[in-house]
Amino acid sequence: MLMKKIKRIGVLTGGGDCPGLNAVIRAVVKTADNDYDVNVIGFKDGYEGLIENRYMELSTKDVSGILTHGGTILGTSNKADPFHFPVLEGEDYIYLDRSSQAIRNFEALGLDALLAIGGDGTMAASARMMEKGLPIVGLPKTIDNDLWGTDVTFGYDSAVTTATDAVDKIHTTAQSHHRVMIIEVMGRYAGWLALASGLAGGGDIILMPEFPYDIEAVCNKVKSRNAAGKRFSIVVVGEGARAMGGEMVVDHKVETSPDAVRLGGVSRRVAAQITGLTNIESRVTILGHLLRGGSPTPYDRLLATLFGTSAVHMVMDGQIGQMVAMKNGSIGSTPIAEVAGKLRIVTPETPYVKAALSLGICLGTPHGVNINEYLEQETMV
Ligand code: F6P
C-alpha cells in the first residue's frame, strides 16, 4: 500500500495539565523537524483550539528552553469534548456537536495527522474523532497514572515527588506536636499517587479509593502506634477514598466538564473521625493543584521525550489510531479505541500494595484480614 507523504502534523494537549507536557511538545517538534522535515502546528487549549481554529506554528525555536518548564505552552482544557461542546447562550450553557467543524479545520490546515496528548477524557474524545476519520496518535499524560494501556504516564513521577516532599515535611511537625497528620492527594478514582507517596514518604496509613476504609482499623493503627511510644501518625489519603459502604466526597461539580465531579475533602472527614474515636488531635493538609505544578522530574522528562519522539515515528510509520505506551520497560503502543472508557487502578496484587502490607502500613483494611475477602464484604451487602 502506498502511504500518503506526511508533511504537516498538528499537536494538542488536553485534560488537566501536568509536568512534562512541554517536554513532550519539544520532543515532537524537534523529531518532526530533525528526522523528517515535517511542519508542526499546535492547537491551543486542547480540542477547543481545533474546534475554534486557534493554533500556533511550532518551530524548533518555539520549543527551545521549555524542557524544564511545568504547564503547557499550548494551554489545555478539560471541558472541550468536540461531541458535547459547551457554548454559553445567555446565562446558560448549551451543548453542541462541533466534531465536524474540528474535522473541517484540520483539513483546511492541510494536516496529515494529529498528536493528541492527554488522559482518559482526551483518549475517549480521540477515539470518537477517529471514527469520524481524523488520523490520530495518542500520548499518555496524567498525574493520576490511571490510563489504561500503559504502565505509566508522564506527570505522575513529578507529582509523586512533590507529594513525597510534603509527607517528609509534615513528619517533623507531626512528631513535635504528637498529632495525626492527614495529607490528601489528588488522583481521582485511582490511588496510585497516595500509594506511591505514602510508601516513599514513610506514611503509617494510606487510604485509596480502591480499598474502602474501615475507620476502626485506621484508629486501631493510630492507637497501637501511640501504645508503642510513637506518638504521631502520618495518613496519606487519595481524594477518592471512601469508607466501606460510603460515598466519595465531592467538593463541587463542573457541569461543562465531561466528568463533572471534582473530588476533595475526604481528609477532613477522616480527621474528624480519628479525633472523635481516639481523642488524639489531627490536622489536615490538602495538596490539590500543587501536585500539577513545577519542573518535571528527570524521569518524567525522559518519559515525555521517549513518548514524543516515538509518537512522531509512529505517525511516519503509518501507525495511526495507536497510543504510545510504556509496557514492561519498553516503548509499545495500545489502540486508542481500547484505552477509551477504561481506568487502570490499584489492586490487591499491585506490588506496592503487597510491600505496604508487609511493612505493617494500614491500608484502611482490618489487620490480619485478607484484603480480597474484606473487599468482598461490600459486594455482599
Ligand atoms: O486528572 C488530573 C486531576 O488533577 C485529578 O487528580 C483531579 O481530580 C482533577 O484533575 C482536578 O481537576 P480540575 O483541574 O478541573 O480541578
Structural notes for this entry:
With 381 residues, the chain is an alpha/beta fold. The protein is 37% helix and 20% strand. It contains twelve helices and 15 strands. It has helices at 21-36, 47-52, 99-108, 120-131, 156-177, 192-200, 215-227, 266-278, 298-316, 336-339, 351-358, 371-380, and strands at 8-13, 39-43, 55-58, 85-89, 92-96, 113-118, 136-140, 180-185, 205-207, 233-238, 250-253, 261-263, 282-286, 322-327, 330-335. α5 packs across α6 (192-200) and α7 crosses α8 (266-278). The protein is elongated. The chain starts with 7 loop residues before the first strand and ends with a helix. The mean pLDDT is 97. The protein binds 6-O-phosphono-beta-D-fructofuranose. 6-O-phosphono-beta-D-fructofuranose binds at residues 16, 78, 119, 142-144, 186-188, 239, 254, 262-263, 292.
